[in-house]
Automatic annotation (TrEMBL):
Domain of life: Bacteria
InterPro entries: DUF883_C, YqjD/ElaB
Pfam families found in the cross-reference section: DUF883_C (PF19029)
Annotated protein name in UniProt: DUF883 domain-containing protein
All copies of domain DUF883, residue ranges: 69-98
Length: 98
């Protein structure tokens, strides 16, 4: 009888350990989901910051180009008009071939 009682106790202990393990797995799964979500948010924030910095650079470069073009037109209006006419002619020729 002592052997049967020892097996019963061992089986009950094993069942309790399995239930504890199931609970731990559920907790671990939830924790991994939270970590993944947080990591995804960090990556998105980093990408947004990088994009904003690049956009600011491009905007600054475009503003400088506009100022340079404006200065060029003010300094050499005849040449600017000639260049504009040439570009217009080329665009017209390209568009008429289609």
């Amino acid at each position: 009888m002592a052997t049967a009682n020892a097996k019963k106790t061992t089986t009950e202990d094993l069942a309790k350990q399995i239930e504890t393990l199931k609970g731990d797995l559920v907790d671990l799964t939830e924790m991994m989901g939270k970590v993944g979500k947080n990591k995804g948010q960090q990556i998105a924030q980093s990408a947004r910051e990088t994009g904003e910095a690049q956009l600011a650079k491009v905007q600054h470069g475009a503003e400088r180009a506009v100022h340079k073009a404006d200065d060029f037109v003010n300094e050499k209006p005849a040449m600017a008009l000639g260049i504009a006419a040439g570009i217009g002619f080329l665009v017209g020729m390209t568009a008429s071939r289609r």
